Amino acid sequence: MDFETKTSRMRALITKIRTADTAYYRDDTPIMTDREYDQLVDELKERESETGLILSGSPTQTVPGEIMAGLTPVRHTRPMLSADKTKSMDDLVRFADGRGVVLSWKMDGLTLVLRYEGGKLQQAITRGREGIIGEDVTHTVRTFLNVPLAVPSIEPFEVRGEGVISWENFEKINADLEEPYTHPRNLAAGSVRKLDPAESKKRLLEFVAFDLVTDLQFATKMEQLAFLDQNGFDVVPHRLLPNPDTRSVNLAITAMNPARYAYPVDGLILEYNDIAYGKSLGATGHHENRLIALKWKDELFETKFLGVELATTRTGMVSITGLFEPVEMDGATVSRAYLHNLDIFEGFQLGVGDTIQVYKANMIIPQIAENLTKSGTFRLPATCPCCGEPLSVETTSGGTRQLHCHNPHCAAKLVQKFAHFCEKTRMDIEGLSATTLEKFIGHGWIRNFGDLYTLERYKEEIIHTEGFGAKSYGRLQASIDKSRCCTLAKFIAGLGIPMVGRHAGRDLNKVFGGDWDAFEQAIKKGFDFTSLPDFGETMHNNIYKWYADKEEEKLWRPLLHHITFIKETYDMTNTNNPFAGKTVVATGKLVNYTRDGIQMKLLELGAKPGSSVSKKTDYLIVGEKAGSKLTKAQQLGVTTLTEEEFEAMLA
User: Fold this and answer.
1) Residues annotated as part of the active site
2) 643 vs 626: CA distance, rounded Å
């Protein structure tokens, strides 16, 4: 098995293990046995040992979870200069002047330099001030999906590349943000520079390498890129033009269509393949003369403005989309463009019938360039498109103004409540995604949680809904019927009580014996939830506030007619031990216990397995590669035990 085959297998193993981890930790539904899981990890370790390559997504590595107090300034070993720019293909031909050149994407993200020593990632630095002083962002770059933490080459070197987020991941992440970003570049930049690497990890960042900063005596750019590829980096797509002329340059540029590339780009880079020649050309204070950037011309099209479309998101923010007469752009018919905020909308001074110019930014995103008429007669609707309540103007943390709907019971917000209820880790109703729920709510088929269990009334309509059919409906109905019997833990987790999720649901399930009536009677009698471990005053207040909300009650009360509660029992056969009644957390890899094995063992002992360390934690069992939980336990003075000490206390 050659190096390329081994690294390909490593990536496949990492994907499988990641999927298993998600199913186990997030969804509470293991998709493989512990033995199968361990076999995958062992094989990954073997491949890493054979290749000398360790990828940042590898489960064999522990990603630090500490929150940084601030970003440390770092001086670059070589100034991070820019590239000269042009919008003319003729300029590229003149630049090449018959010499061999390499054409690649100009990535649109956050430029970074990664330093390696002794085969390991030592530091990651942003471009920073004037390319001289950057910021240390090693803590977040270690959470990227594809950055090699260890590489086969042990000689020191620096690699330059771009921190990016794919278009696909951008759409997914942006949909869940209270203040959506206008472009993946902004989201990537903000995510890389976060202080908390755990938050950055959620943004699915990737690193695309495009330059070897260190002089390792390679003669050509192609050799440099091959070196980076051999050391496990995702290298920017590129092509060599050995004898560039007008025809070959134009053909190469035409072949690189940004609409078919998974990541945002804002042009192309042309660079001399001969490294020595490129260096001999020197640099200005702004750019290096060895390369030039082609920025696409924004071809403008005239059309007529027709109005706007408002859409309320789950956070209450109302997006504004401009509508115009259809126009052909780059082979596609376009009739709408997103207007990112109220300030941009007002700046165009739009009116129905105004002549506007539109274009595709970076040949991908439709935008309004200018309003040639500027009648300023169009007035935005003053009410929410979903619930009809008045809209207000809010200023975001970034200083821009957005329209907002503050009705807590707006149908747009209910979509997310229903989606939360249907999640696999809650009521596990397969087939009811947020998109599907939005359609059903829009048709008036669902108004409360109970309506989910009477959808058979709309069987024919659902079957003929776009994206559905008889088989899809059958699967959906089977999943709904299966969820009619559930535990109190899942039921409570699905109700969406603020801060009362799966772990709290399990605790309440245990305290009230899986009985909803007992839980409800406790609320009516003023039960003190702060008396329960890990329940603070905020959670206590949230439960009572939720129960007293009559609008919320209209959502969940009808549900009780359709649900049968299953009681869970815990066989605590051994309560005569030091851990009975204690809160115990385990961290790191244990020798004699699987991930769920230690949880079950603690339950058998009458202990309360915890998921996080707090002042109420009695013991922390520490395994190999313990992380931030150990640090926090030491700070709080929580008793820590090795696995051997834990078993010795049992004996």
Assistant:
1) 106
2) 12
Name the phi and psi angles at 269, rounded to 5. -120, 130
What values do phi and psi take at 520, rounded to 5?
-70, -40
* Statement: residue 66 has pLDDT above 50: no
Residue 369: pLDDT over 50: yes
pLDDT for 519 beyond 70: yes
Cβ neighbours around 290 below 10 Å, total: 19
CB of 620 closer than 8 Å to CB of 585: yes
Residue 5 predicted with pLDDT over 70: yes
* Nearest residue to 101 (alpha-carbon basis) of 246, 257, 284, 269: 269
Neighbours of 554 (CB within 10 A): 14
pLDDT band at 548 (very low <50, low <70, confident <90, very high): very high
Q: What is the rounded CA–CA span in Å between residue 116 and residue 159?
A: 8
Most confident range, picked from 15-19, 427-431, 461-465, 497-501: 427-431
Q: In the block, which residue shows the tokens 């859409």?
A: 311
Contact between residue 51 and residue 3 where contact means Cβ atoms under 8 Å apart = yes
For residues 221 and 197, the answer to whether their CB atoms sit within 8 Å is no
Residue 222's contacts (CB-CB under 8 Å, 6 or more residues apart) are 102, 240, 273
Per DSSP, the chain holds a count of helices (H) and strands (E) of: 23, 26
What per-residue confidence (pLDDT) applies to 306?
96
Stronger pLDDT, 375 or 288, i.e. the higher one? 375
Q: With contact defined as beta carbons under 8 Å apart, do 119 and 46 qualify? A: no
Task: Give the pLDDT score at 35.
Answer: 58
* Higher pLDDT pick, 67 / 369: 369
Cα-Cα-Cα-Cα dihedral sign, residues 101, 103, 106, 110: negative
Residues 6 or more apart in contact with residue 174 via CB below 8 angstroms: 180, 181, 187
50: tokens are: 């054979």
Looking at the DSSP bridge assignments, the partners of residue 206 are 164
Q: Calculate Rg over the CA atoms of the chain.
A: 29
Q: Give 646's Cβ-side CA count (13 Å radius).
A: 25
Reference 105, options 166, 187, 162, 148; nearest CA is 162
**How big is the chain, counted in residues?**
651
Domains recognised in the chain with CATH numbers: 3-51 (1.10.287), 73-294 (3.30.470.30), 301-398 (2.40.50.140), 412-566 (1.10.150.20), 583-650 (3.40.50.10190)
Largest CA distance in the chain: 86
Q: What is the mean pLDDT of residues 445-454?
A: 89
Token representation of residue 75: 């001086």
Give the whole-angstrom CA distance, residue 13 versus residue 253.
36
Average model confidence (pLDDT) for the chain? 84
The token duo for 531 is: 């008396």
3-state secondary structure 356-368: EEEEEECCCEEEE
Rounded average pLDDT over 527-535 = 85
pLDDT at 74 over 70: yes
